[in-house]
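Internal QA ticket QA-208
Title: Verify multi-chain structure generation after dependency bump
Assignee: T.L.

Test input:
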Amino acid sequence: NAGVTQTPKFQVLKTGQSMTLQCAQDMNHEYMSWYRQDPGMGLRLIHYSVGAGITDQGEVPNGYNVSRSTTEDFPLRLLSAAPSQTSVYFCASSHAGGAGETQYFGPGTRLLVL
Amino acid sequence: GEDVEQSLFLSVREGDSSVINCTYTDSSSTYLYWYKQEPGAGLQLLTYIFSNMDMKQDQRLTVLLNKKDKHLSLRIADTQTGDSAIYFCAENLVGDSSYKLIFGSGTRLLVRP
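Actual output:
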């Protein structure tokens, strides 16, 4: 198993540009989520999905859209990038959604918005 | 509200023990995790403990939980240079979903040869 994969590893955008961060998992996990990691802070939840076709907002959803058309993929879209979205983005998945269920993290996408 | 706090930095000599500390503020029923993040990599789950436990040991790792003080620690025995990384403490409340993790800001561990 490849686990959780993310592309690209690094991206530079200009303010106002749009892009999609890709996330895929091959573990048949129902639950997937996106976090952002800013310097000196822990990870914060952006959006999550409890299964194909079902998504919901996390702690910091503004400026981001998600969709879940398949179990495997959970892309994160920035419609109009802003410098405040400069961050490292992590995708994660888990088999079930209960507390204590292990989350598996991807390697991250480092995004710089100029 | 929930808050998880960690010290920012720890430096130890190779072969010594490392102790990374974390405090949390929320309920009596929670899962507490330790994640390791190496440079340029994602988070790797090291170990976790449920709040009704006092201690958990896994090879070189020992997790101690002081429920009264809401204090969690991760001890790494015989610390190696490969242990240099950022260590995150995270809390997951029972009744919340697995993705609703509350992270500390991370402790950067530097192991000196």
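Spot checks passed. The two ends of chain B are 41 Å apart (CA to CA).
Status: verified.
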